[in-house]
Design a protein that fits this description.
binds zinc ion; six-stranded mixed β-sheet; Rossmann fold; globular; two-stranded antiparallel sheet; binds Fe4 H S5
Length: 314
């Protein structure tokens, strides 16, 4: 099969958009897609400093590489979650990329800097991924604010977003649906969060890394078992097998048609935010979700501090 842009031999066929590309044109297409997404959603304005959340996996390294090549001032932040050898190996991939590109990588080690690891926090929540997600959201935002970045960019791809959307639709979780956007604007206590890879599939980010020779951690996190999003991804993958393009259509329909109707709910959510009595971060409770998690992880015998709930979970 030939590349549809230059007639060279193709190295990748994309069934979901009925196209095939040689390696040079594929990389070029990834850059165009990401630049187009950034412009369309006004994710990054000229002169803004971007902090990329880097896990050592294919998506975050592809994102960092793409942003640097597109000329953005993009540094990285890596969170050492303390998940044994998996964390050591993923950290090594993040460091190797940063060194190779001469880019700045900020490192936060949960055990050293926060006082607990994800395995230590896991028994507190039913699924370790819930504790992990709370910690990542809080710490990435804090690092971005503390270091004066304008934007926090994460490597969520089309498959991730389709799986999250599927989960939110399954439970008709309207506040979560209202918040599921490619851009979450900045507001007091929150840096702007953007997802420039929402139009690239998991397979495309993996192919991008292979073509660009980026060494990323291939193994799955050993604590991923029980993560419902993996089940949703499998379901959507089998649907995609039979109907190529189904995932992209599902996500695009939501973004274009339903998401704008949820603006009011998103606004209500924003207005209900107060200040955490423990750390001063924005929250809808007296104590934010991260402070509660840290208390429970570091003082499990006491069950952590648990003040009476003011509002919905923050
Ligand atoms: S790192 Fe954390 Fe993931 Fe591991 S514990 Fe779950 S959320 S699976 S992206
Ligand atoms: Zn707090």
């Amino acid at each position: 099969m030939k590349c549809q842009r230059c007639d060279e031999r193709s190295v990748i066929e994309l069934r979901h958009c009925n196209a095939a590309y040689c390696s040079t044109c594929f990389v070029e297409r990834c850059r165009e897609r990401v630049q187009g997404t950034i412009r369309r959603h006004r994710m990054i304005r000229p002169g803004e400093r971007v902090l990329v959340a880097v896990s050592g996996g294919k998506d975050s390294l592809a994102l960092w590489d793409l942003l640097l090549d597109l000329g953005y001032e993009a540094d990285g932040v890596y969170l050492g979650l303390g998940i044994g050898g998996y964390s050591n190996r993923s950290g090594a991939c993040a460091r190797e990329f940063a060194e190779g590109r001469g880019a700045r990588l900020i490192e936060i080690d949960l055990e050293r800097d926060v006082g607990f690891t994800i395995p230590q926090a896991a028994p507190v929540r039913r699924a370790p991924c819930s504790a992990c997600g709370t910690s990542k959201r809080y710490l990435l935002n804090k690092v971005a604010l503390d270091h004066g970045y304008d934007v926090l960019a994460t490597g969520h791809n089309l498959d991730d977003e389709a799986a999250v959307l599927f989960g939110n639709v399954m439970t008709w979780n309207l506040p979560y649906l209202a918040r599921q956007r490619p851009v979450l604007p900045e507001r007091t206590g929150f840096v702007r969060r953007v997802k420039p890879l929402v139009r690239l599939t998991e397979r495309e980010t993996a192919a991008y890394c292979v073509i660009r020779r980026l060494d990323y951690i291939i193994e799955e996190c050993p604590m991923a078992a029980g993560n419902r999003h993996l089940v949703y991804k499998e379901l959507l993958n089998s649907l995609e097998e039979r109907a190529p393009g189904a995932k992209a259509t599902f996500l695009r329909g939501f973004s274009d048609r339903l998401s704008p109707l949820l603006d009011e709910i998103a606004e209500e959510e924003r207005e209900s935010v107060g200040v955490c009595s423990g750390c001063g971060a924005p929250t809808t409770e007296d104590l934010c979700a991260f402070c509660r998690l840290r208390d429970q992880a570091t003082h499990p015998a006491r069950g952590g501090r648990r003040p009476p709930s003011r509002r919905r979970s923050g």
